[in-house]
Design a protein that fits this description.
The complex is a heterodimer of chains A (321) and B (273). Helix content of chain A is 76%, strand content 1%. Chain A has 14 helices and two strands. A two-stranded antiparallel sheet of chain A has the order 1-2. In chain A, helix 7 packs across helix 8 and helix 13 runs antiparallel to helix 14. Chain A is globular. Chain A starts with a helix and ends in a 7-residue tail after the last helix. The relative contact order of chain A is 0.14. Chain B is 74% helix and 0% strand. Chain B contains twelve helices and no strands. Chain B is elongated. In chain B, helix 4 runs antiparallel to helix 5 and helix 4 packs parallel to helix 7. Chain B is mainly alpha-helical. Classes of the chains: A mainly alpha (321), B mainly alpha (273).
């Protein structure tokens, strides 16, 4: 990978982050009512408002305000949550671990199962598994994640009673240690599977077509002719480049994935960022809502960056100016 | 906006026929909702949590409202949102795509950077921010989704314009003294629009998923019936009334599937596959 491409791609991140900041700033000022209400809530007194105006520079000209606001957001200062009376960043940070646990588990499951389905479908073309995978993928692609989750709850939690319906832990805290970890895993399984399901469809479809493309190429025929074992042909020779479209699809769908995570967290009452987000929207706790918006935007920007870098790393043939 | 031959060839494909059928069902249900619905969707005179029966084919909710009537009226909300977003997306996407592709150079660069920005902007979360700042409502939801969903169309139209620009009939029009504006309107747009319309279906399917997910989170317009909100109300009764969570989500799936299948089929036919 050439260094110039790397530098240019890294530099692209800044104008995009600046623009996202600008969008947030403009929305605050377009909203009805005094913008101080957006950073300080509507239950403060005059003295508090004066203090917050000063702190966020709301009595200064707009461009200056934008500068001040940008400076604060870059440092992670989104204002004070007025329902909780603490910095929004602190409140959000407390919820991140639970969300991260659910999201990473779901992503790992989606990648492993998705690629697995893709490999099976590609090696047994037009077999029952191939057709079944494609059909399920098409269905999952169209289904809202809340519906997949509701059906999963109806069947696996309520009817079969395999998993708990909601929450991250049982009320019974006895046992501790391993007992506690197993309890969390038991609660995690169903939401993680539901969240993974919306990605499995897309990943398996692309892994399949990527592998089929690759298996038809000359270097694969050469490898087979040399007597390389089929397993090794598949895993060593074909997989690397076949994964290119999979990497793109995962990177390009980060926005959907995170939106899906919000829905899944609400459906399963998972104690993560999403519950905080929805309750903050209902109570108009703007610093929290905007803080989460900036956090998610940053995740999407970084994921896109990593996707592009992974692309270069996976396919050395690609040369960038 | 689509040549007649295209529609005929789309219907001949099984996926295209199913897609068109589902989309038509979706549109017609919305158009004739008051006549089709057996009950007033707000009237509470049915049994509470009544099982699906001859009188209430999809059962009733906790307040005794007919689910089927709710789903039929919910189609109106869904089509109102997707329809108006479609108009905005089509106008913005075609405008940006044509300008960038036809003028090229610096303007193309600027417009493409703008497209990149809109591509990373998380639409779902932006819509949530708007609800938090402005309160829930269909008009702002439509506005925010319309203003942020045109990226795919702009890219597709730009690519199409770039290739059309080099064709003989455009050169001929240019040689015969037609102005740039005239060439774009008379020669380029009629050829670029069908592709835009094909991709529009995919965009609208996503829009519908976002709208219903917001409804599910309880952030939709509280004054209208929507599939997402119906699904959200089902939550606490799922244990005793399976029909509450099953049917609203199914309506979303059918509408989204219809739009996806139709868009795929039209794209395939247009590209000669």
């Amino acid at each position: 990978m050439t260094r110039r491409y790397l530098v240019r791609r890294l530099l692209q991140v800044f104008p995009i982050c600046a623009a996202i900041l600008l969008v947030g700033f403009l929305l605050i000022h377009l909203a009805p009512g005094d913008p101080v209400l957006a950073v300080a809530g509507d239950s403060g007194d005059e003295q508090y408002y004066a203090e917050m105006r000063e702190r966020f520079g709301l009595d200064r000209p707009l461009p200056v305000q934008l500068g001040i606001y940008a400076g604060k957001v870059v440092k992670g200062d989104f204002g004070v949550s007025y329902t909780r009376g603490r910095p929004a960043r602190e409140v959000i940070a407390e919820r991140v671990p639970a969300s991260l646990l659910l999201a990473t588990t779901a992503l790992v499951v989606a990648v492993v199962v998705g690629i697995g389905f893709g490999v099976v479908a590609a090696t047994r073309q037009r077999g029952i598994l191939d057709v079944a995978t494609s059909t399920v993928a098409l269905g999952l692609y169209a289904a809202p994640v809340f519906w997949v989750g509701q059906l999963a709850v109806l069947f696996f939690a309520l009817r079969l009673d395999w998993f708990p319906v909601q929450g991250m832990t049982s009320a019974d805290r006895s046992g501790g240690g391993w007992h506690h970890i197993l309890d969390v895993v038991h609660h995690l399984a169903l939401p993680a599977l539901v969240l993974a399901s919306q990605e499995i469809g897309a990943i398996s479809r692309l892994a399949r077509s990527g592998l089929l493309d690759e298996l038809g190429r000359d270097h694969i025929r050469t490898a087979r002719a040399k007597g390389v074992r089929e397993r090794s042909v598949l895993l060593k020779h074909a997989m690397r480049r076949a994964l290119l479209p999979v990497v793109t699809v995962i990177g390009g769908r980060v926005g959907y994935f995170v939106s899906g995570a919000v829905v899944v967290e609400i459906l399963f009452a998972w104690p993560g960022v999403a519950q905080l987000l929805v309750s903050s929207v209902q109570s108009r706790d703007i610093p929290i809502v905007l803080g989460i918006f900036f956090l998610v935007s940053l995740i999407v920007v970084i994921a896109n960056l990593l996707t592009d870098l992974a692309y270069v790393w996976l396919d050395p043939r690609i040369r960038y100016r | 906006m689509l040549p007649r031959g295209v529609i005929r060839r789309v219907v001949r494909r099984p996926a295209g026929a199913i897609g068109l059928g589902l989309t038509a069902l979706f549109a017609l249900t919305a158009a004739f909702a008051p006549r089709l619905a057996p009950f007033d969707p707000f009237s509470v005179d049915g049994p509470s949590l009544g099982r699906p029966s001859g009188r209430y084919p999809m059962g009733t909710d906790a307040l005794g409202r007919d689910i089927l009537s709710g789903i039929i009226h919910g189609a109106r909300t869904a089509i109102l949102v997707t329809g108006l977003v479609a108009v905005m997306v089509l106008v913005l996407g075609v405008l940006v795509g044509t300008t960038a592709g036809w003028l090229g150079g610096r303007i193309d660069d600027v417009l493409m950077r703008l497209t990149e920005l809109f591509q990373v902007l998380p639409r779902f979360f932006l819509a949530i921010v708007v609800v938090a700042l402005f309160g829930p409502g269909l008009n702002r939801l439509i506005l925010v989704l319309g203003l942020t969903s045109w990226v795919l169309l702009a890219r597709v139209v730009r690519a199409e314009v770039l290739s059309l620009r080099e064709r003989e009939f455009v050169e001929a029009a240019s040689a015969s003294g037609a102005s740039g504006f005239r060439i774009v309107v008379r020669e380029i747009l009629p050829n670029a629009l069908p592709v835009a319309v094909a991709y529009l279906g995919l965009v609208l399917a996503q829009v519908l998923l976002i709208e219903s997910s917001l409804g599910f989170l309880g952030l939709g317009d509280p004054n209208v019936i929507s599939w997402g909100a119906m699904a959200s109300n089902a939550g606490q009764f799922a244990r005793v009334a399976w029909w509450l969570p099953v049917f609203p989500g199914m309506a979303v799936v059918l509408a989204v599937l219809g739009l996806n299948l139709l868009a795929d089929a039209v794209t395939d036919v247009l590209s000669g596959r």
